[in-house]
What we know:
The chain is α/β, with parallel strands linked by helices and 404 residues long. The protein folds into two domains: 5-213, Alpha-Beta Complex (Spore Coat Polysaccharide Biosynthesis Protein SpsA, Chain A); 246-391, Alpha Horseshoe (Serine Threonine Protein Phosphatase 5, Tetratricopeptide repeat). Helix content is 49%, strand content 14%. Strands 1, 2, 3, 4, 5, 6, 7, 8 and 9 form a nine-stranded mixed β-sheet that branches. A hairpin with a 5-residue loop joins β6 and β7 (127-131). α10 runs antiparallel to α11 and α12 packs antiparallel against α13. The chain is globular, with a radius of gyration of 21 Å.
Amino acid sequence: MNSLVSVILPVRNGENYIRAAIDSVLAQTYPHFELVVVDASDDNTPNIVASYKDERIKYFRQKSKGSVNGYNEALDNYVNGKYITFIHHDDIYYREKLYEQVRMIEKFADVDCVYNDIEFVDEQLNTVRIRGHEDYYHRNNDLLAVMMIGYGISNLGMNVLVKRDFIEKHKLRYSLETPICCDHAYMFDLIDAGATFKHIDKPLLRYRVHEDNYSGDRERVEQDNQRIYARYSFEKLENIVKHTNYSENEKEIVLGKLYYRLGNTDKANKLFIDALNKHQNPWAAFYLGTGYYRYQGNFESAEKYLRLGQEQMPYRAEFANNIGCCVLQQQNVDAAKPYFAEAARLMPNYYDAKYNLERSEIGEKFNPRITDREIEHSEQFGIVWKMAEKKREESGSLQPAGNL
């Protein structure tokens, strides 16, 4: 194997972490790569990059404003590789990442994109959890369905390696219309273009979790997602879900969340209520309650259904956190605080709960963070969750395998 890989590193003010990211690329066991740094910084980042004398590093100042343009300038002007992947300035490759990815993509001639599992770490690089993934080989409907509800392939730009010929054939670039979720939109572009995906069953990337990279602006994230989903009609989405390999119960959850995200709250409510009337499904109660909160502002109904789900799954931190949000909106900070504390106890690295607990300790009312993207935790969501949970247990991590 001697095909060139272009590793694109767009950066703005990355002086605190970029050295570790660059070092992890230079330490790759696969030597045939170029590291293309596109820099829009006004801190010490340029000097840090200049301190390296490795000829595989190609440094360019970003010409246009906006973080997304760093990706596109590299794709348009600077890359020479047969394969394309990315790294963020605060993340770290395993030494064998490129080797394993190139080996897999060259083993399967029909594969256009490979991806792997991820190790989430804190600022000191201590393991928080391992996130496992499912293999969606020739199952694009399944991948597309779960991508729409916040699962599928996580941390997309760093986690995937794509054939450059496929990117250029379909003229794929990062979307300027979805700056917060540009990598998410890019994955939809790959799926819509008919890419074939293959999974590498091991973690090859360390994703550093810290406040600066946590997307706390959920409204902007939701707005970007709305723009992504707008390319599909309701009929198209329903047909996609219908033709997935998931069970009927799983399809209910997927469709219900899609209806909420696309603004059809009545249809989502009816679907989840019908599901609860047919069988016990705590995650249908979770989404129904969270939907009443987020999309309708009906905090009383939201609390009712969240408590119903919590009765069946008292060990799930998401229920406690979201009930706390309802209590805060209807009562006061003191009444809500115990719920946030319980959520943080159940899941110590749960950012929504930590955020809410820290602010409740101040004693002033605030706008809490409600969690609405935990489909991969569902026992109903068998294939995805069981595989991810198995990886969690094998890793020795105490944290759930799904989203923080």
